[in-house]
Amino acid sequence: DAKTTQPNSMESNEEEPVHLPCNHSTISGTDYIHWYRQLPSQGPEYVIHGLTSNVNNRMASLAIAEDRKSSTLILHRATLRDAAVYYCILRDSNNAGNMLTFGGGTRLMVKP
Amino acid sequence: DADVTQTPRNRITKTGKRIMLECSQTKGHDRMYWYRQDPGLGLRLIYYSFDVKDINKGEISDGYSVSRQAQAKFSLSLESAIPNQTALYFCATSALGGSSIGEQFFGPGTRLTVL
Predict the structure, then answer these.
(1) Using one digit for the tens of pLDDT, what is the confidence trace for A32-62?
(2) Which of A36, A83, B81, B100 could form a disulfide with B114 if both were Cys (CB 3.0 to 4.6 A apart)?
(3) Which residues of B touch A51 (CB under 8 A)?
(4) Phi/psi at B84 (nearest 5 deg)?
């Protein structure tokens, strides 16, 4: 699977929007962009995924660049509970095993 | 009740001891995975299983073995534990492949310390 690059950490104020960037310049046409997050002392949990079009769900929005070489996870109103490590992962649709390759992720800190 | 459970949640053992970590799931998924996480790093895949008769090595399988006793149970063993196997271990499950989502569901983790 292609690699992703994320900032090590970001800080946000509570109730403000947060934009978490991810670069994936070597993405292939069959790679889906997945986001997981890991809250303190918990296992990772799925957040959102997309292929080409922007996606919205109850947790977040995913904005995908037109060339697909980068994407941004958007938390519309950060809460203290959103403080976590966010992982941007590329998963090849031909990867029938649903394998996930985790990088270092971005540690999001939310200030009250 | 949690869909993916792991036992024990914490374990301290000594070098050379045999350790088994257990994972159970009630999601009815065919696919199960074992990962380890070292401080400040992402998760790395140890072993995975697509069904009861299928076991595959992941990125870092040396020093580990697994057993898929049933669809719902997947155990990870350290035959002779060593200190650099001190880590947080996660079990995960996913539905049969072919889905664009391929969402994995993770257990709460087992913190293992090898002295």
Answers:
(1) 999 999 999 899 999 999 999 999 999 999 9
(2) B81
(3) 100
(4) -80, 5
Percent of chain B with pLDDT over 90: 83
- pLDDT (0 to 100) of residue B46: 96
In angstroms, the CA A73 to CA B83 distance is 37
Residues 73-112 of A with CB under 8 A from B: 87, 91, 93, 95-105
Rounded Cα distance between B88 and B110, Å, is 6
Instruction: Please say whether the beta carbons of B3 and A63 come within 8 A.
Output: no
Provide the 8-state DSSP code for A5. B
Contacts of A96 in chain B (CB under 8 A): 97-98
Tell me the sheet residues that pair with B105: B93
* Separation of alpha carbons B106 and A58, rounded Å: 20
The kind and range of the H/E element at B33 are strand B31-37
Residue B45: list chain A partners with CB under 8 A: 99-101
> In the predicted model, is pLDDT for residue B101 greater than 80?
no
Pairing mode of beta strands A18-23, A70-75: antiparallel
The residue type found at B114 is V
